[in-house]
Design a protein that fits this description.
Blueprint lengths: L1 E3 L2 H7 L10 E6 L12 E6 L1 E7 L1 E3 L2 E3 L2 E3 L5 E5 L5 E3 L4 E2 L3 E7 L7 H5 L14 E2 L2 H19 L6 H25 L2 H20 L2 H5 L4 H8 L3 H12 L3 H17 L6 H7 L5 H12 L3 H10 L1
Helix pairs in contact: 3-4, 5-7, 5-8, 5-9, 10-11
GO molecular function, one term: sequence-specific DNA binding
Organism: Nonlabens arenilitoris
Protein name: AraC family transcriptional regulator
Length: about 300
């Protein structure tokens, strides 16, 4: 897999103009020019840069991480350093959009260097991209226009600060629009929760808990063909609970059935549920139910 350490080497590979700043570049496609991806195809590549792009794909699939997506609407795609990107010659881009690329060191010593790590959408997959309404697209394009003006001005001591301020504004708007996207996709969110619970039920019934231990959120997300961050954000917005909390609730529900089986010790139940240490299970059970596993058994017997 090819890795690019500098912004210049990455843009050169992408067949885009070299940056006017060694660590920052903005490219806005005009009607007569290519959208920012003139290279026809690419094997998997990584780099040390952040990318923010507005792209409209007319035809073809973009592979990003483990997933691919075929879409024709404009979408904002966010890529973080060292994430894998790949595409082939079947991808055709509409001649409209922009691409902002900057090396991770461009943010060093700024507040945005910390803030940007809090935006989960940099870990989303292409099929989880931000789809903009026409009004939202205009707002984003207005910010990009301001960044481009500053980028093309003669560089001075204020240039970097102004560009980073505009970048911060762009990301805050993106975060707001993602919130809207989650709210407008409640049906999809409910479907995702059902699939999440189904995958857990299948895993429990297969006997893999005692053999392989408790599944990770990443394993479940892979089964659902979504990124771990997107799964967590979607369930949190819809239910108020994180993916870990949903996993724990399913484990406790399963535990209640096993605890009431005759001649089962607490330790045996813990191992059957995939816990390496029984006291971890007892601690979680008490945290969620307010009573210990043994107290739960006694309470059931009394009823």
């Amino acid at each position: 897999m090819k890795h690019f350490k500098t912004l210049s080497s990455f843009l050169q590979y992408m067949e885009l103009p070299l940056p006017e700043h060694p660590m920052f570049s903005i490219y806005v496609a005009q009607e007569e020019s290519f959208l920012p991806c003139p290279r026809e195809s690419s094997p998997p590549i990584t780099n040390d840069c952040y990318s923010i792009s507005l792209k409209k794909i007319v035809k073809g699939d973009l592979n990003y991480g483990r997933t691919s997506y075929d879409f024709t609407n404009g979408a904002l795609i966010f890529i973080a350093p060292r994430q894998v990107l790949q595409w082939d010659s079947s991808v055709i881009f509409e001649q409209k959009g922009f691409s902002i690329n900057f090396h991770e060191d461009f943010l060093k010593g700024t507040e945005l260097a910390t803030q940007i790590k809090k935006y989960n959408f940099f870990s989303y997959s292409v099929n989880e991209s931000l789809h903009l309404s026409p009004k939202e697209e205009k707002q984003i394009e207005s910010i990009v226009h301001n960044i481009k003006i500053e980028y093309q001005n003669n560089q001075d001591e204020f240039s970097k600060e102004i560009i980073i301020s505009q970048l911060s504004t762009l990301l805050k708007y993106a975060n707001r629009f993602y919130e809207r996207q989650f709210l407008n996709r409640k049906e999809l969110s409910n479907d995702l929760l059902e699939k999440f619970n189904f995958q857990l039920a299948m895993y429990f019934e297969s006997g893999k808990l005692s053999e392989n231990g408790i599944p990770t959120i990443e394993q479940i997300a892979n089964k659902l063909n979504v990124s771990q961050r997107y799964l967590s954000d979607t369930l949190k917005k819809e239910t108020g609970k994180t993916t870990t909390e949903h996993l724990q609730l399913n484990l406790i529900d399963k535990a209640k059935d096993i605890l009431l089986q005759p001649h089962k010790t607490i330790a045996e139940v813990a191992y059957e549920l995939g816990f390496e240490y029984p006291h971890y299970f007892s601690r979680l059970f008490k945290k969620k139910e307010g009573i210990s596993p043994s107290q739960y058994i006694e309470k059931y017997k009394m009823n």
